[in-house]
Amino acid sequence: MVTCSFIPGGVAAAKGFTAAGVHCGIRKNKSKRDLALISADCLCNAAAVYTQNLVCGAPVTVTKKHLAAGKARAVVCNSGIANTCNADGIEKAEGMCEITAKALGISPGEVIVASTGVIGQPLDLDPVKSGMPHLVNELSKDGSGNAAQAIMTTDTRKKEFALTFTLGGKECTIGAISKGSGMIHPNMATMLCFITTDVAISSPMLQKALTAAVADSFNMLSIDGDTSTNDMACIMASGKAENREIVSENEDFALFTQMLSTLLIRIAREMARDGEGATKLVVCEVSGAKDQGTARTVAKSVICSSLVKTAMFGADANWGRVLCAMGYAGAEIDVTKADVSFASPAGRVEVCQNGAGIPFSEEQAKQVLLEEEIKIDVRLHDGAACAEAFGCDLTYDYVKINGDYRT
Amino acid sequence: MVTCSFIPGGVAAAKGFTAAGVHCGIRKNKSKRDLALISADCLCNAAAVYTQNLVCGAPVTVTKKHLAAGKARAVVCNSGIANTCNADGIEKAEGMCEITAKALGISPGEVIVASTGVIGQPLDLDPVKSGMPHLVNELSKDGSGNAAQAIMTTDTRKKEFALTFTLGGKECTIGAISKGSGMIHPNMATMLCFITTDVAISSPMLQKALTAAVADSFNMLSIDGDTSTNDMACIMASGKAENREIVSENEDFALFTQMLSTLLIRIAREMARDGEGATKLVVCEVSGAKDQGTARTVAKSVICSSLVKTAMFGADANWGRVLCAMGYAGAEIDVTKADVSFASPAGRVEVCQNGAGIPFSEEQAKQVLLEEEIKIDVRLHDGAACAEAFGCDLTYDYVKINGDYRT
Fold first, then answer.
1. CA of A182 to nearest chain B CA: how many angstroms apart?
2. What ipTM was estimated for this complex?
3. Domains of chain A as residue ranges with CATH
């Protein structure tokens, strides 16, 4: 039996890391922090997953290059400007790394760089340069919250989490900050997430663990079906927990991966809950699938459906839309064997058995769906595989936020 | 040089066809027609394309069976209830054919049946039975408008079009009615469309022409990314134009297919314009693609993006979202060679060259995007293939309509 606890401290909770976030002037609004820094005391093993969008932000290109050897010491990230689709984007991203490295006394190649915001507008490095001394000065074990705020765009809540557990007899910690509220879609590392840990683990094993954990968390998340150009999830491991270094897929590796998944699923849920304009978290759990690929495909199709999302907004038990989305998911399933129910803290209501409607109380269904966290439970009766996907409702505010984002 | 003219008469314009639409009582609102009939004077060659959703409405299953031999004499369609995901759906769909056939003095197997509306609610055949004599009595050459109204759900405008042209020295006509406003997504026959023609053409050639015309029209249309369970486009050919029957892929076949495409593209545009909650038609034209598959994939990805759709609603020239959607389309393209412009009756504004932003007047861009018909023009500079996709903006009213559809 593995035990773990969520603790405060976010991305600076693990031994060896500090964080900070300040307003440097990329954004005009002085009350909004716009530059974040995460710093490690030592050179860390590092790994990352990136957007699969062909239009790839310049910071992603630069970070890929810097992480080629699986090492890093810091993360710098601005919000407000994505630094994507700019002719001088690479130069600017390299410039951010140089400014950061100089201030920290490290090499530019040891810096992970990220940007998030409007695509196609030029990034001015002057605020980064002028704000960097203050940012470095702010670095502390208590700085995660400010860093989390500095990477937010349309997010309404900062996302920072940390998890502690015992591995190889040592107390270990994984922490993270993330941002992401729109332009989020499964099967990519669909947002920004910066993770730190004090577990000792080799870069190749770190990459494997991250890829596996992302498959169950961020890749099962969709807000609006749009895959961002600047998404990345990266992890730095300081080794300061002093466990025996994980260098193969042994029991410690399995435990670490499980803990990392637990943390990232928590983050994915919070990102879905804070989806642009969302009023509720919608989780689709598919069980009884013939294999996990099928379970994932069906779960993602349901939470991606605009019609399911609007029905959830309206607290309307329109289960036909759930079946419809299952039917076009692209998975081989027998819909005539499928059962569907809706569940929430207010109860559970069965609405469909063997692919056909059954009588249910509309009033009770309404009560269930008026809650802020809804489970759409799909049982395929075709095997033992299961998966969960994380989404949100589609609301007036999503349209409002995105009809007028740049102005 | 081929000439053709749009004429009145809709689905009853071609020689040999009459149509009608009445309120029979499937819907409670007595002012809304809910049952449509299209009748042919003779047994017609017929063809159809169907939804690829695994959850397939009972009427689709029954129509596939009835059209197995490529012959039909009538189309019956109700709105209000989809007759999908009901245990007795097949029986009810067959029942609708029997009631129709009896009233027309034809065989039930000669009837094409369709239903559109809420999924998973039982279809009561009593109103169909009691309304059928009146419906048959109403059949006329002027009945297309009523038939078009009777198949509407959330559509705000009836869709009926007819086209006349000369083929083999004979005056020929193709006409259609269609419905579709939500749950519409490319790569399927994504709505209901009933087409009639007096051209003499064999069933296999009719199927080929329909499939080709749908590829350029309905399969390039998306309202909301949800593929309906009940979609179908079918065509009946009476042969009464007395042209030499088309039995091979000759020049007459090419001309007929071109005319059919012209009609269906016109309908696809009107369906997109009348998308649920839409305030404007958005057309994405991709040119300079290395092949047509690439052009279609990129064009569809752009018009499907929720972020592009909300930007169009807000008249916001946020071209970065266009590039983003091109990048995740799944096609092999070089985004660094791509140009993008927005155009409308108010003018044209170039916003992106070689994958990077260029200076443009935001004020002029706003004027262009405030129009009711927007063209997003993407030039890939990688070949000679092109494609157009048809969509609409995403608005508050889409959310309103779908948050509360069943009540």
1. 9
2. 0.72
3. 4-273 (3.60.70.12), 281-403 (3.10.20.340)
